[in-house]
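Protein modeling request. Please complete all fields; requests missing the sequence field cannot be processed.
Requester role: graduate student
Desired output: 3D structure, token encoding
Chains: 1
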Amino acid sequence: MLPIFILAINNSADRSFAEVLYERHKDKIYKTAYKILHNEHDAEDATSETFIKIMDNLQNYYDKSEDALAGIFVTITKHTAIDKYRRKNKVEIISIPEDYTDENDFDYVADFVVKQELYKELYQSLDGLDEDYSNVVKLKMEYDYSDMEIAKILEISVENVKTRYHRAKKMLSKSLNKNKTEKENGQ
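Delivered output (187 residues):
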């Protein structure tokens, strides 16, 4: 059965093309999403979101080869699945230390605010990185994937994962130090 977003396409040529794309690529897109999300329901959602993005840009795909389309669709799927994972896991759980009392309320809240501010700065710097580097860092730090798992998800070598991660850390350090200097100088 075809998804409703394909059936809703008014132009019959576009609808037929969309049906063909869906039938040829749905399994690969689902498998790619599942590799990242490790959850059947989330992978199905990411697959639907990916196809909606594809349908929004359908005109761009008429002149592409099957191999090119497969590569484009897998890339769209990876980004969609990573974004979905990030949205789903954005809520941070705060654990209260065993020695917590009302007397140390201020210290606890102050520490939390400082940590949140650093976290925010790190993410702003991370968003400024090239996608090749930021994806490796996010998969490693946020999702706790191993180098081997990241290599499989991004379809690169383990050595490339290590290299990108090392370079990204250097770039993040430089960016965070620059931000710190700017704050200290009142800019």
